[in-house]
TrEMBL record:
Residues 1-23 form the signal peptide. This is DUF1223 domain-containing protein. The keyword Signal applies. Keywords: Signal. It comes from the Bacteria.
Length: 260
C-alpha cells in the first residue's frame, strides 16, 4: 500500500514538472511573440514631463522619467519641460521657459482639462496623467509600445557647427497636416536649490529640454537645425530628438541621435 502511494506521488510530481515546463515554454514563447510584434511595429513612446525645480511633488516624477528612459532606451523618448509658473515662489528654475508653459496650456485645452499642473506626463500627445504615478507610467508604456506608428522618421548628416545642430531628415508616410519638432535634450544636470518648496535640496534633473524648433512639412525630406543655448556646457551630453506631429498635437513618429 505504502509502495503504491510512493509510486503515485512520484508520478504526480513528474507530471507536475512536465506541466510547469510546458507552461514556462508557452509563457516564454508568448513573451517573445509580444516583443517581436512590438519591434516589428517600430513603436515609439514619447513622454513629455511638465515639471519644475520649484515644485515639491516633482522630484519623484523626475526620477521616474529617468528610470523608464534607462529601462527602455530604444523606444521611449523622455522629455522634461521645465515650466515657469512656479518661479514666483522664490526660486527661478534655470531651465524654465515660458514657451513650455504655453505648450502645456495647449495640451490642457486639447484634453479639456481645467488647468496646468505639475508633475504632468503627456504620452504621444494623446493623453495625460500625474507624472509620479509609476503604475500608470508602466501601463501606458506597454500600451503604446504595442501600437504601430503612422509615420517613420530618420536622421542623417547630423553635425554640430558653432552654436547650431544641423541635420537632414526623411519622413515615411503622409506629411499632410504634419510638422517636425526638433528638440535638444540635456542628459543631466545637478542643482542646489536655495529657495522655494525644494529649498536646501540638491536636485538631479535629466532629459532636460533646452531648445526646440518647429518645421512645417511640405515634403517627405528636408533639412533642419536647432540652436544650442548658452546654458549648455562643453562637458554636457546632449541628444537631438525629432518628433512628427499632426495638426492636433498627436505624435506620429520620433527618432533620436546622440550628440557627442
Amino acid at each position: 500500500m505504502i509502495k503504491k502511494i510512493i509510486i503515485s506521488s512520484v508520478a504526480f510530481f513528474v507530471m507536475s514538472l512536465v506541466a510547469l515546463y510546458h507552461a514556462h515554454n508557452v509563457e516564454t514563447a508568448t513573451t517573445e511573440k509580444v516583443l517581436e510584434e512590438i519591434t516589428g511595429n517600430n513603436s515609439i513612446v514619447v513622454l513629455e514631463l511638465f515639471t519644475s525645480q520649484g515644485c515639491s511633488s516633482c522630484p519623484p516624477a523626475d526620477r521616474l522619467l529617468q528610470q523608464v528612459k534607462q529601462e527602455y532606451p530604444e523606444n521611449v523618448f523622455a522629455l522634461s519641460y521645465h515650466v515657469d509658473y512656479w518661479n514666483y515662489i522664490g526660486w527661478e528654475d534655470p531651465f524654465s521657459n515660458p514657451a513650455y508653459s504655453v505648450k502645456q496650456r495647449n495640451y490642457t485645452r486639447k484634453f479639456n482639462y481645467r488647468s496646468n499642473y505639475t508633475p504632468q506626463i503627456v504620452v504621444n500627445g494623446m493623453e495625460h496623467f500625474v507624472g509620479s504615478n509609476a503604475t500608470k507610467m508602466y501601463s501606458k508604456i506597454q500600451d503604446y509600445s504595442a501600437k504601430a506608428q503612422e509615420n517613420q522618421v530618420s536622421l542623417d548628416k547630423v553635425s554640430l557647427e558653432n552654436d547650431r545642430i544641423n541635420f537632414n531628415f526623411n519622413v515615411d508616410g503622409t506629411v499632410e497636416g504634419r510638422q517636425l519638432r526638433a528638440v535638444l535634450v540635456l542628459d543631466e544636470r545637478t542643482t542646489e536649490v536655495k529657495r522655494g518648496e525644494n529649498r536646501n535640496r540638491t536636485l538631479k534633473n535629466s532629459n532636460i529640454v533646452v531648445a526646440e524648433n518647429y518645421i512645417n512639412l511640405g515634403a517627405n525630406a528636408g533639412i533642419g537645425s536647432v540652436k544650442v543655448p548658452s546654458l549648455v556646457r562643453t562637458s554636457d551630453k546632449m541628444t537631438l530628438m525629432v518628433l512628427i506631429e499632426s495638426d492636433n498635437q498627436d505624435i506620429t513618429a520620433a527618432a533620436k541621435y546622440r550628440i557627442s
